[in-house]
Amino acid sequence: MSSVRRPAIVAGLRTPFARSGTVFRDLTAVQLARRVTQELLERTALDGREVSEVAFGQVVASVLAPNVAREVSLLPQLPRTIPAVSLNRACASAGQAISYGADQIRLGHAEVVLAGGVESLSDIPILHSKPFTQILLDVNKARTLGQRLAAFARVRPSHLIPVSPAIAQPSTGQSMGQSAEKMAKENGITREAQDRLALMSHQRAHAATISGRLAEEIAPWFGGRGMDEVVTTDNIVRGDTSLEALAKLKPVFDRRYGSVTAGNASSLTDGAAVCLMMEEARARSLGYRPLAVVRSYAVAAVDPGWQLLMGPVYAVPLALDRAGITWRELGLVEIHEAFASQVLSNVEAWGSKAWAAKLGRAVPVGEVDWERTNVHGGSIAIGHPFGATGARIATTLANEMVKRDVQFGLISICAQGGMGFAMVLERV
């Protein structure tokens, strides 16, 4: 028997993805993560005592529950002695959780790992302004009523304006949307091309929804907003949109000359996703048939002051090299759609001879075949809960690889900070 330990994805599940402020607005990230994990355990009939570790990605963590993975590991189906780790690699956080689980399995440190991610952008921490924060600290330190009243007397109306976490790169002050706009201009990505990609994403996601292709990866949520709603599908998908409708939307980040709109960008989203990972031989001994094994993964980074979302251009060829395969051998590809301009910029670079030279390669990485790429739509249509997207993509890809009997599949994710994440799955 081979001594090689292969980490396999046995099953995956997610909540419906919902636009922030809608059906999941009253739920916390912990509630979303625990519910989808509980459902996965029930569907797979896994004995909780088999689980070695829980790893979850989250980007905007709650100060009340900073280690969401530990809250998941305390489900009643699991022993309370299971260790847990929460990870943050921005939009690739769930991908990082899966790669962490794969490494733990390869090293012999784990046999069974629950790896996923979650985000509730309806429940983000709201901060006080710095002047008001200082006043509150002074009140807390005050020893007399007079000192407290003197501190409160310094409060001004402007101090009470809440401060929300910025979705921006701290080193540059630019948001990812501003970077996407920059990529569109510098790479010659037209507004029409972006809208066409967005339309394709919605059409494919709508088709996959009404056909039931996505149903198997979604755990219905009983009790949406007001606890009187059953949520079974993603609520961002627009099957009735058109190029004409998308063309009417105004640019968001450069209102005069821009091309990035709410229609060709991913929405702020609430949701959770989780994968059940096992060492391949262990999975088979327990009666499970693995969907795919993690053949390789790679992370790369670029200067965030350049083009923030070009990291996948570097990560993907590295993951392919580590897997020992070429782009031509890929049967399916899943590219995270943060922005249409980002996807199209990445795709253009992979197929470019000029970029091949920059990457130190003799030939381009490969040309994208859209018939094999994002076959059920992507994040523009489905939504993008930052911490959960990687597990959503891995689940969709692994399931589709089985349906189509595809040997190799690729995941590509851009992430804040100029990072790129890529993973190669192999059908078993």
Structure notes:
It is built from 14 helices and 12 strands. Helices cover 35% and strands 17% of the residues. The strands form 2 sheets. Strands 1, 2, 3, 4, 5, 8, 9, 10, 11 and 12 form a 10-stranded mixed β-sheet that branches. Strands 6-7 form a two-stranded antiparallel ribbon. The chain has 428 residues and is an alpha+beta fold. It has 2 domains: 7-123 and 266-427, Thiolase/Chalcone synthase (Peroxisomal Thiolase, Chain A, domain 1, 3-Layer(aba) Sandwich), CATH 3.40.47; 130-159. It has helices spanning 29-44, 68-73, 93-106, 130-141, 145-152, 176-186, 191-210, 243-247, 280-285, 311-323, 340-350, 353-358, 379-382, 389-404; strands at 7-14, 18-19, 53-57, 84-87, 112-119, 221-222, 230-231, 269-279, 292-301, 332-335, 408-415, 419-427. It is globular. The mean pLDDT is 94.
Net shape: globular
> What is the total number of structural domains?
2
Task: Using the CA coordinates, give the radius of gyration.
Answer: 22 Å
Helix and strand string, N-terminal first?
Answer: EEHEHEHEHHHHEEHEHEHEHHHHEE
CA distance, first residue to last residue = 17 Å
- Helix/strand-derived category reads alpha+beta
Which CATH architecture of the largest domain is right? Answer: 3-Layer(aba) Sandwich
Percent of residues in helical segments?
Answer: 25-40%
The CATH homologous superfamily name of the largest domain equals Thiolase/Chalcone synthase
Look at the structure and give the CATH class of the largest domain.
Answer: Alpha Beta
Helix count, DSSP H or I runs of 4 or more residues: 14
CATH topology of the largest domain: Peroxisomal Thiolase, Chain A, domain 1
Give the rounded overall mean pLDDT.
94
Main pleated sheet: 10 strands, mixed
How many individual β-strands? 12
> Residue ranges: pLDDT <50 for 5 or more in a row?
none
| Beta-strand residue fraction | 15-25%
